[in-house]
Amino acid sequence: xxxxxxxxxQLERVLSSVEQLLPKACKPxxxxxxxxxxxxxxSFSGFxxxxxxxxxxxxxxxLGVDEQKEIMVNNTRQFLAGLPANNSLLWGSRGTGKSSLxxxxx
Length: 106
Hints:
The protein starts with a helix and ends with a helix. The longest helix is centred in the first third of the chain and has 17 residues. It is α+β, with helices and mostly antiparallel strands. Helices cover 38% and strands 11% of the residues. It has 2 domains: 52 residues, no CATH class; 51 residues, no CATH class.
């Protein structure tokens, strides 16, 4: 079966449109070399993108959030041990240490 040039052109346009909906091809996360990943949404799907941890903040450097630290540390330990753990929702004004707490846990 030989396709007409206009049919080939139409098929190429359709394939080009479909390709824009697909997530980009990416390697699986190497968990031996990476401790965290961000979910990057793409169209109807998404992919995990490794995070390079460059923040050297430690839990001991975070002041005034002792109760929050204790809750997060205990919950994270339970999760890592395969025990029941909760999802965490950190909320507050900008600059109150939400991201720093998560990074310090890493």
